Amino acid sequence: MVSSNDSGKSYHLACTGDALDTANAHSTPGDITFFGSCFCPFVQRAWVALEYLGIDYHVYEVDPYKKPAELLEVSPKGLVPALKLNHYNAPRALNESTVILEFLEDVASGSTQKSLLPPVSDPYARALIRLQCDHINRTLVPSFYRYLQAQELDKQVECAKEFVESLIGLVKLFERAEKESESNVGLWGDGGVLSLADVMAGPWIFRATNVLPHYRGFALPSGERLGAYVARLVAHPAFKATCSTEQLYLDSYERYAHNRPNTSQVANAINSGRGLP
Ligand SMILES: N[C@@H](CCC(=O)N[C@@H](CS)C(=O)NCC(=O)O)C(=O)O
């Protein structure tokens, strides 16, 4: 059943389920403090990368809407995710999920040897993954929010179409990489290897399996390969380790689904037709 009444639920402030176990296993301060919020898909991107690349980190949950001083110190707009890099004297910081992902990839290439990209010796294969990332950031992510925030039925239908087209566009880019690249192309192939694009898109694809069905009656477009890809993604150990239980997402996204005023900087940007923060 599609949920239609705004019951006034608020976002959660602490992880549940697998994500809680993972957060508890990373509760000791160390070189990297990872500022995050349990419901946030931009945070989940960085978290999956930390897990997959095997980089040490300490989870520090904050409320990004309250903008505590310690968050503003590491992220100028007070957005999560952010990293505090404690091995510098004085500590330095990084924000922006896409920049953090590239940073973690670079850190891992000098330490854990794990990678989200094909080898540097195959620049074309790396570029194909980055084309996917570009599509995800400019099309898939904004269309998710436009769909979830749309209130009138005709607008919802139009936005559902747009979101489905963005998913199909991603599938086409996956297929192209598979055809044109000799290197590993990520989870679309079924070797269990995550790519930068899998991590970039994963949190919204996951929310398209719980939040969108609940609030918009959404179903993923049919296609055996897309279904199998999504199943592999949500079951991947590095992804699963960052997932809370479904209710946390349903509660946390009710404000978006009813387009409550001032839900977030992302929601305001969507409502005013601006680019995402
Ligand atoms: N472009 C940023 C977006 C991050 C973002 O919007 N995070 C949300 C939580 S999901 C946030 O911190 N919102 C606080 C606010 O809207 O003031 C990134 O990719 O890291």
UniProtKB/TrEMBL annotation:
Residue span(s) of domain GST N-terminal: 30-112
Residue ranges of coiled coil: none
GO CC list: cytoplasm
Residues in GST C-terminal domain copies: 122-265
Domain of life: Eukaryota
UniProt-recorded name of the protein: Glutathione S-transferase
